[in-house]
Amino acid sequence: MFEIRWMELADLNKLSKLYRSSKPSTGRAFSSYPFTEWIVNNERLLLVADSGTKLLGFIVVRPKGEEASIDLFCYDKRSRAKNLKDALLEHAERFAEAKQMSIFLPKGDKLIPFFKKKGYKVYDEIKDLYGKGKDAYLFIKKLERSAKKPKKKVKKQKEEDDLLKENLKKLDAYLDF
Q1: pLDDT confidence of 26, banded at 50, 70, 90?
Q2: Do 76 and 22 form a contact (C-beta atoms < 8 A)?
Q3: Cα separation, 25 vs 31, whole angstroms
């Protein structure tokens, strides 16, 4: 059992471990991605699958007008959580506010059958995208509808701001003795 929720700064250590254990085919180090900036500036759609005790996966989507691209798709391959990959992808597609979604996958990647099953089609082949001799496919899916991002994130930020203000008032009162 898991829930899909917005990524938070507190998740970064767990995300780093999950990313390293998944051995991504692109070969980039976790630290090369500006997760803190993405979270703070709300520059990407950042979702995690959370079991309550650990993070089981995450997806990072970059919106670009009516298009969106999946930058990272990572999940715990040892997890027995049913429909984990499906849930992450479906939530991202729903909240991306795009008419089409794309992803680059290295040739031979184990996720290729999954994305094909989900309606993604090979649009192009890119030579040496991940280094000499490491070619990739560009997959694209036309999305049926454009959904609005949920207001949950704004509400959560307001609650956090209200809590911070309340704690500052308490601290001021304490320091005034």
Answers
A1: low
A2: yes
A3: 16
